[in-house]
Amino acid sequence: MKATTQAGSEASAEVRTLADLANLAGVSPGTVSRALAGKSLVNIETRERIQALARHHGFRPNQMASRLRSRRTGVIGVVVPLGHAVRQHISDPFFLTLLGHLADELTENGYDVMLNRAIPDGTPDWLERITGSGMVDGVLLIGQSDQFEVIEAVSAHYRPMVAWGAHRAEQRHCSVGTDNIAGGRIAAEHLIAGGARKLAFLGESLSLEIGKRHKGAAMAAAEAGVPLLHIPINPAREAMRRQIKAAAEQCEPGVDGIIAASDVIAMNVLQCLHERGRRVPEDVQVVGFDDLPLATLTAPPLSTVRQEIASGAKAMVERLKPRIEGEHTETLIMPPRLVVRETTRAA
Asked: How many Å apart are CA 59 and CA 18, to the nearest integer?
């Protein structure tokens, strides 16, 4: 009878505060707070029991009050800096792919996301305005654009920031990205092994990442004694198509292997080559960079250098969380991987 009475009282108890839930669970309010936050300091059995009680009674902690006490916003700023390509859009497939993975990781870790498309436009304090706004607990940068020095300067006094991008020796800020030199090299080596005797690299080298991809391709071409033509391509949608058409004409005399700095550039290249009656890979081989989901849908399916975008997004969030607590985390450089489909020939 006693157990029935206790169960009945638990079922009918009104739970409005942490203290009410703590009294019901027979633990301290601090234990309840830690259990609801998923802290490992509370053993898993107790944590699950408290969370089940909270769900049963429809208890929702006052998140605003909790954030005020902890001086946290629960918001992470995801920033796309567009210093070298002010007309590029967040709708760019690479941005959307990385943004989607970051948003998934952040929400699964209990954070809200604030998106910012930053156009520096000659104002070096663009990043300071975001980090000093008091609106975010940390910042994730999708790319470094041509703003490496600005990011370095801010990282000297603002720790909770991680960038997707390239790494330089003695770099201060934490970054997660691909070994772009190695990626450019394996793209060129694959084309040369498939019989290409004159290469072209299509991409704007003002971006640190793309500059390194070009450097790796140039190294491999020089070692093989194969000429490499560099044609800058603006990643902004309006300019890209026009420039790639001009590049296709420029490549006509003898270029039989094209390294595109991104899959999006490669997709436009395939269309232009088709319009000009050039067969891929019989007349011209094409390699992209990124391995976006769209790369399997081109005609023919695109050979490309794969960046581990999903695991990279996870690594960015994993490195940001300790930084929010004032800790240090190391840069991650991921190895690229060649994905061979049908726009290149086998060696």
From this structure: 9
> Who contacts 280 (Cβ-Cβ below 8 Å, separation ≥6)?
270, 273, 274, 286, 300, 343
Dist. CA 222–CA 59, nearest whole Å:
66
pTM of the prediction? Answer: 0.79
Q: For residue 310, which of 31, 11, 103 has the smallest C-alpha distance?
A: 103
What does the angle CA 181 – CA 187 – CA 189 come to, to the nearest 5 degrees?
100
Which tokens belong to 63? 């998140």
b or e along 51-81 (b: 16 or more beta carbons within 10 Å of the residue's beta carbon)? bebbeebebeeeeeeeeeeeeebeebbbbbb
Closest CA to 52 of 17, 74, 72, 24: 24
Cis peptide before 93 (omega within 30 of 0): no
Q: Which H or E run contains 140?
A: strand 138-142
Distance of alpha carbon 196 from alpha carbon 254, whole angstroms: 10
**Could you tell me if 172 and 323 are in contact, meaning their C-beta atoms sit under 8 angstroms apart?**
no
What confidence score (pLDDT) does residue 5 get?
41
Is residue 76 within 8 Å of residue 103, measured between CB atoms? no
- Contact indicator for 135, 73 with CB cutoff of 8 Å: yes
**pLDDT tens digit string along 285-311?**
999 999 999 999 999 999 999 999 999
User: Looking at the DSSP assignment, which residues form a beta bridge with residue 118?
Assistant: 81
Answer whether 155's CB lies under 8 Å from 132's CB.
Answer: no
What residues of the chain score a pLDDT lower than 70?
Answer: 1-13, 61-71, 83-88
Among candidate residues 103, 54, 303, the one with its CA nearest the CA of residue 193: 303
The answer to whether the beta carbons of residues 214 and 205 sit under 8 Å apart is yes
**Which domains occur in the chain, in start order?**
2-61 (1.10.260), 75-178+309-335 (3.40.50.2300), 180-307 (3.40.50.2300)
pLDDT at 1: 37
